Amino acid sequence: IRNNARSRVEYPPQPEVEFGFPQTCYCGAKPVLATSNRYGLDPGRRYYTCANVGDGECHVWKWWDNAVMEEMRARDQHVLQLAEKVDNLTLLSDYETEQKVLRLEKIVSDLVWLSCKMIVEQELGNDQLIDN
């Protein structure tokens, strides 16, 4: 006697399927958008499904509006994170610029001092040559 029962494949949770707009089905196929046409159960509501849904295996199924809301929340969070990074870069930029200006002022000050020292030494050297 042969056992004709198919063993069900269990798929691990996949973020590309379960969060936001599904990118791939558990079976690897590309999800498709369908419209509910059941009377009394969200007629006209859009959802993601898989073209292979009839094979008895596990496939993606998700309301389109839920996916949109997940994506929007993720985008909002991402925008807040980027805004915070921009603020930090602005602060860091100001600090780095200030440090560079201070280093340049020190270099200019050192060059002016060396230039004055060289002029004085040259003048003293010329006076000593004239005196001799």
Question: Overview of this structure, please?
Answer:
This is GRF-type domain-containing protein. Keywords: Metal-binding, Zinc, Zinc-finger. It comes from Brassica oleracea var. oleracea. There is one protein chain. The chain is mainly alpha-helical and 132 residues long. The protein has one domain. It is built from two helices and three strands, in the order αβββα. The chain has a three-stranded antiparallel β-sheet. The radius of gyration is 36 Å and the shape is rod-shaped. It starts with 14 loop residues before the first helix and ends with a helix.
Task: Describe the SSE topology.
Blueprint: H1 15-18, E1 32-35, E2 46-49, E3 62-63, H2 64-131
Antiparallel strand pairs: 1-2, 2-3
Distance between the termini: 126 Å
What best-fitting shape do the alpha-carbon axes yield? rod-shaped
Please give the radius of gyration in angstroms: 36 Å
Number of domains in the coordinates?
1
Q: Could you tell me the number of beta strands?
A: 3
Helix share bin: 40-55%
Question: Which parts are unreliable, with pLDDT below 50 for 5 consecutive residues or more?
Answer: 1-5
Mean pLDDT: 80
For the largest beta-sheet, the strand count, sense and barrel status come to:
3 strands, antiparallel
Helix-strand string = HEEEH
- Please identify the structural class as seen in this structure: mainly alpha
Spatial strand arrangement across the major sheet: 1-2-3
Number of helices: 2
InterPro entries: Znf_GRF
GO molecular function: zinc ion binding
Keywords: Metal-binding, Zinc, Zinc-finger
Domain GRF-type: 25-67
